[in-house]
Every structure is written in C-alpha cells, then in structure tokens.
C-alpha cells in the first residue's frame, strides 16, 4: 500500500476530497471601490476642499425667526445668562456661534472666541447645540464664557433652520438682522485674523 493510500484512510479516494472553499474576493470588489470613492469625497470635502465655499441659502437673508430658552443654571458674573431670540439680533452687529461641550473643535477655537468677545461694537451670542445643561455649564466654567446670551437648542431644530452643517459654525448678522457671513468649522488663529475679522470689519462698516 502506498503512502498516498495510507494517508487517505480506508475506503477514501483522495481525489474525492472536497477542496476548501475560498471566499469570493471578487464579490467584495465593488464594495471596496465604493468605500474608496466615498473616502476620497470625504477627504476632499473636509480636508482637500475649502468648506467656506459650500453655498449657504441664508446668506444676505433675514436670520430665522427663533426663540431659545437659557441653559438652565448657567451663570456669568453670578447672574443668569439669558436665552436668545431673533429680536436680540437687532440694533447691533451680532456674531452667532454654534457650539457644544462634546465638540472637540469647539474647545480648540474657544480662545479665539474669548478674544472676539472683546471686539467693540459687536455682541457674541451662542447657540448650545444638542447638549446637556450640566455639560454646557462645565464646559464654559472651565474655559470661560465669552457669550452675552446663550440659547439651548436641545432638539437641534434651530441649528437646522440656520442651515448648520455641523458644529462649530459661526455667523455674522448685521444690525438689521440679515445674515451676512458664515464660517464653517472651527476658527484657527490664521483664519480668524485673515478671513473672519476682515469680514466682520467690513460688515461693521456697512459693507
């Protein structure tokens, strides 16, 4: 008896053994291609492209009519921080910043908001997006509160009405309540000084 016959065992034909099934790699090929294209699109949108070129339907149009309650228990200088409505945007150039405690880029841009709050002739208002009150209080308590008013957008509906893609986003509203500029994403030291501040000054001057 040959070694081949011995290994096959009694009564077995080695040629009749079922070969191990291999996973059909070609079936996955369309999924791999789709994932690669989706990843490339996302990269171009968030990193390779300029998010400031994303069109906004609200530019040069009145700010949405909205009313948001204050963040419960939030104090500034031992006084409750009031909520915000569209009426609060009238009479002065306003910067409206959409933020959340869970948003890492919001934390990164926060020192620039502290600086922005010192600019004369404007008011800095906040919309707290889908946040828990205790987390918002902790966030502002540790980093400082640059806002004069903050509205709690618990459901995120107001942010949708403002056309927000994601937090953070920052709007400049003129004294008549018209949205004149929108900055998507976190402010950086460079974009703050070379892009945002020039736009703000132009709007303050009636441009």
From TrEMBL:
Domain Thioredoxin: 57-202
SUPFAM superfamilies per record: Thioredoxin-like
Keyword RNA-binding: no
TM stretches of this protein: 23-43
Keyword line: Cytochrome c-type biogenesis, Disulfide bond, Membrane, Redox-active center, Transmembrane, Transmembrane helix
Family annotation (InterPro entries): Periplasmic_diS_OxRdtase_DsbE (IPR004799), Redoxin (IPR013740), Thioredoxin-like_sf (IPR036249), Thioredoxin_CS (IPR017937), Thioredoxin_domain (IPR013766), Thioredoxin_ResA/DsbE_sf (IPR050553)
Any Pfam family: Redoxin
Entry's family note: Belongs to the thioredoxin family. DsbE subfamily.
Protein's UniProt name: Cytochrome c biogenesis protein CcmG/thiol:disulfide interchange protein DsbE
UniProt source species: Roseibium marinum
């Amino acid at each position: 008896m040959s070694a081949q016959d011995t290994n096959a065992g009694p009564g077995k034909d080695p040629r009749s053994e079922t070969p191990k099934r291999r996973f059909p790699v070609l079936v996955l090929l369309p999924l791999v291609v789709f994932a690669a294209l989706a990843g490339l699109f996302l990269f171009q949108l968030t990193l390779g492209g300029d998010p400031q070129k994303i069109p906004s339907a609200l530019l040069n149009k009145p700010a949405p009519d909205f009313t948001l309650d204050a963040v419960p228990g939030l104090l500034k200088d031992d006084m409750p921080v009031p909520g915000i409505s569209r009426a609060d945007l009238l009479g002065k150039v306003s910067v409206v910043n959409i933020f959340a405690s869970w948003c890492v880029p919001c934390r990164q841009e926060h020192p620039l908001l502290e600086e922005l709050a010192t600019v004369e002739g404007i008011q800095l208002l906040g919309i707290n997006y889908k946040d828990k009150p205790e987390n918002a209080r902790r966030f502002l308590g540790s980093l400082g509160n640059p806002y004069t008013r903050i509205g709690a957008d618990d459901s995120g509906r107001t942010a949708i009405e403002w056309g927000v893609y994601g937090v953070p986003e920052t709007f400049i509203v003129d004294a008549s309540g018209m949205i004149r500029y929108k900055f998507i994403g976190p402010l950086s030291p460079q974009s703050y000084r070379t892009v945002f501040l020039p736009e703000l000054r132009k709007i303050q001057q009636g441009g």
